Amino acid sequence: MKALVYHGPGKRALEERPEPVLTAPTDAIVKVALTTICGTDLHIMKGDVPTVAEGRILGHEGVGVIAQIGASVSSFKVGDHVLISCITSCGKCLNCKKGMYSHCENGGGWILGNTIDGTQAEYVRIPFADNSLLHVPAGADEEALVMLSDILPTAFECGVLNGTVKPGDTVAIVGAGPIGLAALLTAQLYAPAEIIMIDLDDNRLAVATSFGATKAVNSRDGQAVAKVLQVTDGRGVDVAIEAVGIPATFEVCQDILAAGGHLANIGVHAESVALKLERLWCRNVTITTRLVDTVTTPMLLKAVLSGKLKPEQLITHRFTLDEVMKAYDTFGDAAKEKALKVIIRAG
Questions:
Q1: 3-state SS of 169-208?
Q2: 327-345 pLDDT, tens digit each
Q3: What is the CATH number of domain 2-150+293-345?
Q4: Which ranges in 8-166 belong to alpha helices (H)?
Q5: Is residue 9 within 8 Å of residue 299, measured between CB atoms?
Q6: Would residue 322 be called left, alpha or beta, if left means φ above 0 and alpha means ψ between -120 and 50 degrees?
Q7: Which residues pair with 116 in a beta bridge?
Q8: In the chain, what are the domain boundaries?
Q9: pLDDT at residue 347, as a whole number
Q10: What's domain 153-288's architecture?
């Protein structure tokens, strides 16, 4: 089968690989129909994720059709259309019972495209299939559902829920890339009064405005904090969502928080950030971190099927698996290419 293979920082190749086989009775083999590239995949390509070994097939998102099932799989059958969760979970360990699937104690968590081969291939093995796949309803827009593998639940759980967005809140989202825009879409489920998007890219800010942002702040001049304080009458924001993963954006989030505010980190950080505790200690602020658990995916699926959420808006480019190298180049140069999410058709 064809697969996108990681060969160390900055090195990737489309290669022929053996098709995966069942290794446990709880496994399923999925023939991948659609997949995508995540910002985390770009972090891997930079060498920021040392758990990813050379020779790994990348990817942790997608939809497809079940080709084989293990003897213990009871919720799915061959031929079922399924959504692949970016998080694999046994459903039985202590952490899974807490709903903390990302820290599954039986070999699950974020393993696809990380510690086991992933979805940017024609076939993928899914451990703990009963807990790590969801049925795709007949007639559903499967391109839109690819956004439910990771980006929507990540933005919602790590940003909106951790940030405790409430009706009437003023929310700032630092980073108008795909994950920041997904936070924008899902934050509107809670009717905040203001959503301020902050980014360097005017095109992405224009997209954010079309998606429902009430204000857009270009941070290229280094005046993002001053601009946000100006539009909030000096008070700051109730919720600051960090959606980039670099020290500068985490600093902006700290500097725009109102007293009693919540800073919810989504970004993947490859280096230390400065914590301004000398100023924040007395301001009743809450800082949260999280790896997505995908516990909200069934609810988000209902919201997509009902039309309340329209994640297909995030898709800007489409490729075949044969064009995956070009897809990476396009996604990696998102500002020039005006790329948000790319869809890769694998089958």
A1: CEEEEECCCHHHHHHHHHHHHHCCCEEEEEECCHHHHHHH
A2: 999 999 999 999 999 999 9
A3: 3.90.180.10
A4: 39-45, 94-97, 129-132, 142-146, 151-154
A5: no
A6: alpha
A7: 112
A8: 2-150+293-345, 153-288
A9: 78
A10: 3-Layer(aba) Sandwich (3.40)
